[in-house]
Amino acid sequence: MAQPRAGMGAAIVPLLALSVFINYVDRGNLATAAPLIKDELHLSASAFGLLTSAFFWTYTPCQLLAGWLSERFHPYRVLAVGLAMWSLATAATGLVTGFTALLLLRVLLGLGESAAFPCSSKLIGKHLPAHRMGGANAMVLLGTTLGPAFGIFFGGLVMAKVGWRPTFLMFGLASLLWLVPWFLATRRSPQTRAAEVVADADAPKAPSFAAIIVRREAWGAGFGHFCLNYAFYFLISWMPLYLVKARGFSMSHMAIIGGEIYLINAASGIALGWVNDRLIAAGRSVTLVRKGFIATGFLIVAASFIVTALADAEVAVAALYVAGFGFGFIGASNFANGQTLAGPHAAGKWMGFQNFVGNFAGIVCPLITGWIVDATGSFSSAFVVAAAVSVAGVFSWCVVVRRIEPLTWPKAVAGA
């Protein structure tokens, strides 16, 4: 990947990717432990869905807060505080003995993790040009796939040997180690919004949230993000339980299958993010490239979920591998599109809003899925619903969003 512009150190993008990796390991531990926690706490599918949904009760609305904080204060510091909070919440989960305490810690985890994407998008959108955003976002989004791969594979194997409680403690405390290289890499960076404003005295101000939410493109991007998140969170939250309870795999076998699916996703994401950048750098239309990749990915995911719903265990697992490949088409373009539309001085707030709309999927998907599984005794209908939502993502990104290009923000509605 090309080096970032001056103003953002060369180590920052890899460290952002590592923070997202930690983010997804820590949020995904509950799903990996689901077969064990569900039995120990005697939870129904609906109750487990409630625990998964609780994370998003704070994560979703706090996207707006994190987007504002990334503009008002320096995103380096905001991200560090958020990571410390979610790491401690993860470690404390290993100490809980009841449903209520577990629910509250999931809420706290969501509050801390809400800082990750608005802050990283602010830094990428401000310091990288359009033809480098695909690679940078693909690297950051490696965390969304390698994190679950590591969590489900290593976490699943560790849980099978020592139980879920020591695993949460170990992973949560280990996450705090990220703060050391982050502070070393950012210690020479301006640490206040005031310092940043002095450096960019002639730059336009970020638009207000009011200016963003009246744009058709913001709602198209937000709902397109919702569709991606619904399908991806469905996979993250329910795949371990599906493989163990519905398909009869052991915890160890489940860990291997899940890890391989996420590794396929990671490989396709980084490769396709690179191809995305090369096509745009060669002069291809940003709109056609980004929309083409997103539409292809959503349709692959939808078809794979339909096959999973209808096929036997062996074919269903193969289809999940294909779905992992399909997600690689979507992720980098999903974030790069928002950063491109917003422009460098609105990327933090825009991605805060886009993530806010998109992460309502995290609230509704676990509840809908839990209800379907309890009502039907099967995951088949839940896979069909996730496939339908994926098809809707094509419409949102390819029809509601007309062009992928920087929007003009009227000065009359601009604000801090």
Tag the structure with descriptive keywords:
single chain; 416 residues; mainly alpha; 0% strand; globular; disordered N terminus
Radius of gyration: 20 Å
Low-confidence stretches: 1-7, 191-201, 412-416
Order of helices and strands: HHHHHHHHHHHHHHHHHH
Mean residue pLDDT: 85
The 3D shape can be described as globular
Provide the structure class: mainly alpha
Number of strands: 0
> What proportion of the residues form beta strands (DSSP E)?
under 5%
- Helix coverage percent: over 70%
Tell me about this structure:
This protein has helices spanning 12-40, 45-59, 62-72, 75-93, 99-113, 116-127, 130-162, 164-175, 179-186, 193-199, 209-213, 216-246, 251-281, 286-310, 313-342, 347-358, 360-376, 380-400. Helix content is 80%, strand content 0%. It contains 18 helices and no strands. By secondary structure, it is mainly alpha-helical.
